[in-house]
Fold each of these.
Amino acid sequence: MEGYIIYYRGKVVGGIYDDRFLVKPVKSAVKMMPEVGLELPYEGAKEMLLVDNVENKEFLRNLLEALYEELPAPKKKK
């Protein structure tokens, strides 16, 4: 796997894989991007949503906030 994991306020929201910004397909993200299909970040991974509106800072901020609210808290390390 080659890519970069993207964290937002301590939660994993997605990553950059082969010059694509992909996010977890939670309900809020699907609602914000209904026309976007699921893509594989790499072989053997779970499908994710392609964010193609990366130039729109307001959209990205709203997307990350929505993802943050819906994703579970990170697991605490022992």
Note: The mean pLDDT is 92.
Amino acid sequence: MFFHPLDFLIIIAFGLSLWAQFKVKGNFQKYSQVPASSHMQGAEIARRLLDQNGLYDVKVEHIRGALTDHYDPLKRAVRLSDTVHSHASIAAISVAAHEVGHAIQHSEAYGALVLRHKLFPIVNFTSSIAPFLLIGGFLLGSLNLLGLGIIFFSAVVAFQLITLPVEFNASSRARQLMISEGMISNQEETGVKKVLNAAALTYVAAALLSLLQLLKFVAIFSQGNRE
């Protein structure tokens, strides 16, 4: 009853998502074993890049966990995980520079980042409600519930699509900053690209999977209306 031609593409996108997660972990682990020629730890790289861009008020903080690194725009803090903060590897400095890229985006009011921040409160609400509306619409055969669920889920998909240029831009800034500051050699640039590109692929896979799911729900809703 719920099978749809798009299901085949959804399965492929799901497989791509799993592969992307495996890839990012594999590349991070691999380049965590490659020392950076600068001998600078992730926290040192982040602090230096922030200062070079006049962001003296942005803090660099340690956060527990692995790959939990992020930039907090409310607290204006770059938070680096256990495997990044105090490690001087290619993987560590790549991730640290990427998070600094987000801090610079924030300071420059980068358009896609501003839009993402504005959408976040909405998506935080719709992402928790959409699954119940969609399931309820299917189980009860209610097009009204299904339609409302599609609207809520659309906000989630839009957020994920907007995230893509934000992440790619932050990675591009990270590479350019480290090159311009002489923090990496030409040989190390390849490793930096692999670490950052693998991370970006996870966002692409997640957005593609959500978009295909949305298209499936819209197709089912349209068919229900015709019937």
Note: Residues 6-226 form one domain.
Amino acid sequence: MKKIWQIIVLMLCFSVQTMAQCSLCTKTAQQLGEGPAKGLNNGILYLAVTPLVIIGILGFRYWRNARQS
């Protein structure tokens, strides 16, 4: 289990430069310029990560409560 957490932390640390744009968002970002394009990309990543973190927290709490029972 410790190895899995290490892999997850490494993935999060190295995913900072991830490009998370679909083809439509890429075309829009090209028209906006470099500064707003980075903001658009960060917004997309924020919207993608938030539900995953919530699901992870709920899953961890369920796993912890099931283990205590």
Note: The chain has a mean pLDDT of 79.
Amino acid sequence: MALLTILICIILLVLLVSWGKVNPFIAFLLVSIAAGLMLGIPVDKVVASIQKGMGDILGKLLIIICLGAMLGKLVAVSGAAQKIAQVMVNAVGEKYIQLALVAAGFIIGIPLFYGIGFVLMVPLIFSVAYKYKLPAVFIGLPMLASLSVTHGFLPPHPSPSTLVAMFHADMATTFIYGLMIAIPAIILAGPVFAQFLKNIESNPLATFRAEELPADKLPGAATSFLTALLPVILLMLSACFPYLGIKNEQILHLVAFLGDPAIVMLIALIIATYTLGIKQGRKMSELAVNYTDAVKDIALILLIIAGSGALNEVLVASGVSKQITGQLSMFHLQPLVLGWIIAAIIRVSLGSATVAGLTAANIVVGLVAQNHVNPNLMVLSIGAGSLAFSHVNDSGFWMYKEYFNLSIKDTIKSWSVMESLVSVIGLAGVLIINQFVK
């Protein structure tokens, strides 16, 4: 019954948005209320669950997305993105620009949370697409594939790091195995798959499209790269700090504060305001208008993300995830495959990769010791399953759709299939490695 209810709600959501042309935020609210009532949440607690879901997801993403949009707008209008695109294409040639973006996405994706990496790299993707008249999806999806892989497979991202602890795996070994799986997954789900997407038309958000400036008006290459990548640099420094052996608690607390993604984005925006704004002769009043425009353009994205968080919380609060995993655990399957299936089912049902991974881990954690399963591979198997078929209940789906301004059909054909390829290739890699390590 629970599975049927989820299926009905997902179909209803798709029909409201695609056929009924209902605003996605309103559609999420209606479906969340319907799901809560159908799944037995008390009437007086349905709204509270919706509010909690919105608050939880926006609490994590609001500052990051808004500051990221402002930074992206400034990188675009200042000419920094134009300069970066010029330097990259001149270095590798237009023919290989896609591979250059993929490599950049992978390197940036290791220390960066997915949401930050997304809003940080989208302006660069759009700048390359506009300047060299290349399809935005063809150029951008491979880079996003590399971000997605690092998010699901590689520590120090929250989900794989937590799974390492739950299964008593080794962080370094998991990272090495994850790297072995990540590279073919990115190549096949990125540049190879993107060859079939060249005909998808995309008109990305105008907020990241700036008029081309003459060469003498552009900021320097060093300023452009360092400012645009400053969040990456700060987060990498923060990640490396614990290995310096410093034990002073006050310094550790200060570094933890400065290394928080929201603070990192704020510091990056303040510095960018000077290096790409005031230093380039722009007035603060002009920059304030740019920042306001950036936030206006992502308002709908924030509402849609809030709506997806509401639906996710309703499904979690109803206990549906436990019912699903309880039914699946009765099947007699290879533990690595079972972990992947459970994570994939929860991912498709709830939308959250992190929730899917952690919930699946709680179900199969006892099987690891009982069946002598390699714990490092179980981390990666569940991580791969948690990336399966992203669709309308996943905030990442809507971020991609709205930023790239695509139809739901084209979003599924590109984004959802890419995520599924990453998931399946990840499982295949786990099973192959499992044949050689015990």
Note: The chain has a mean pLDDT of 85.
